[in-house]
Amino acid sequence: MTNVTEEVHEEHTDIEYCPKHPRSEANLHCNRCGRPMCTKCAVHTPTGYRCDDCVRGQQKVFITAKPQDYVFGPLVAGVLGLIGGAILSGFGFFMLLLAPVAGGIIAEAVRWVIGRRRAKSLFQVVAGSIVAGALLPALLPIAMNLALPGGGLGQVLGALGFSILWRLVFAVLAAGAAYYRLSGLRL
């Protein structure tokens, strides 16, 4: 009988625990570094399970943006978003087809300016700049009218009519297309 209890005791000493969650049993090992990990820490990749640290380290390899990219990329995107919004907002329904194309063109212009460097945060800032550039002409009259005495949002929105709606649609479609184009996905 003592042999059975000794065998059970030996099995319990072989249990590994997660370094980040000491109370959790480590059922998996990272396929890169071999570190034990629990299911909370495991990140499923196409090649198997990896720990958070290895995944973060691998992602840093792909972040190549430089500080000046955060200035020139959004600047180009904002100016082209302004121009694209001004031109395409007059096309009405056809703008639904043209805005993603314009977003792709803006993405390629930004990619040329930033030298094909990459960073998720850079792509998000570029997309935001497209939205800001496209909506700026519509938002300026709203802000000015609200600042004047007796001005109201209803009066401005009535005066702008559908132009603000089409600019908003352009901004969303172009920014989305540009973001996905820059991040490597093709629409």
**H/E series:** HEEEEHHHHHH
Q: What is the β-strand count?
A: 4
Average pLDDT over all residues: 81
| Secondary structure: helix percent | 55-70%
Largest sheet: 2 strands, antiparallel
What general form does the structure show? elongated
Notable features of this structure?
187 residues, mainly alpha, 2 domains, two-stranded antiparallel sheet, 7 helices, 4 strands, 5% strand
Any overview of this molecule?
This protein is mostly helical. It folds into two domains: 53 residues, no CATH class; 114 residues, no CATH class. It contains seven helices and four strands, in the order αββββαααααα. The chain has a two-stranded antiparallel ribbon. Helix 3 crosses helix 7, helix 4 packs across helix 7 and helix 5 packs antiparallel against helix 7. The radius of gyration is 26 Å and the shape is elongated. About 3% of the residues have low confidence.
